[in-house]
Amino acid sequence: MAIPGAEGDIATTTGHREPVSALKIVPRHVAIIMDGNGRWAKKRFLPRVEGHRNGAKTVRMVVEESRRIGVRYLTLFAFSTENWRRPEEEVGGLMSLFVQHLESELDVLLKNGIRLRAMGDLSRLPPSVRELLRRNEERTKDMTGMDLILAISYGGRDELVQAVRKLGRDIQSGKLAPEAITEKVVSGSLYLPDVPDPDLLIRTSDETRISNFLLWQLAYSEIVVSPLLWPEFSRDEFYRCLHVFAGRNRRFGLTQEQVSGS
Ligand code: FPP
Known about the structure:
alpha/beta; single chain; six-stranded parallel sheet; binds farnesyl diphosphate; two-stranded antiparallel ribbon; Undecaprenyl pyrophosphate synthetase
């Protein structure tokens, strides 16, 4: 598949280099668990927040490359419901980083046709972060190049709890019959009902857990784990993950014969 604007070459799974345009399939929705910032900082005797600060540079690279190759939805796990229990200094440092980047990156989003969206329990965020998220969401709402979704103060279980509450209220008010609840109805009660499920989940730093991310939506996503810590996750490594995905055989519970139609 020819990727407009995709130039240069990248390392593939076998280590040899190929043009970016050799990518056979571009996932429509990529979700990423950006892990390893703390370890990256610790190895360098730096405070953890320095790991996050360097991780923000990787965010920029991944956003740029995803947009360039035609990923339609990119979801980044920026802050989990569990992360609220981290030391105050780290939480404060992360919130300041969010403010800084939400202020400085709005122009970049607009120039590149990127719509910013947030998912999570935003009521727990400091007003400065919440307001900047709302402002950037509003300002970029007509952009159609790519949706950049920040999962922030987000938990997969939390999202399901709020969906169940909503459905409960609809049943109580007589708007919905319990028998009418289908998978589609549940999907429609999640934070961003119009966003398709991720095709590819990347997690860095060699960890192989889902960690309460997109529990419902990841049912049939392909998972690719990178050994690199998030601040050192490179363009080459991102493309290696995309090549691994392109080489996967997705069967969605069917047999190989059914999938290939033979
Ligand atoms: C996990 O690494 C990472 C996070 C909890 C935060 C991710 C945030 C960023 C990359 C900052 C910038 C983001 C945006 C959107 C501007 P960890 O701290 O759990 O690492 P560890 O497992 O090595 O301790």
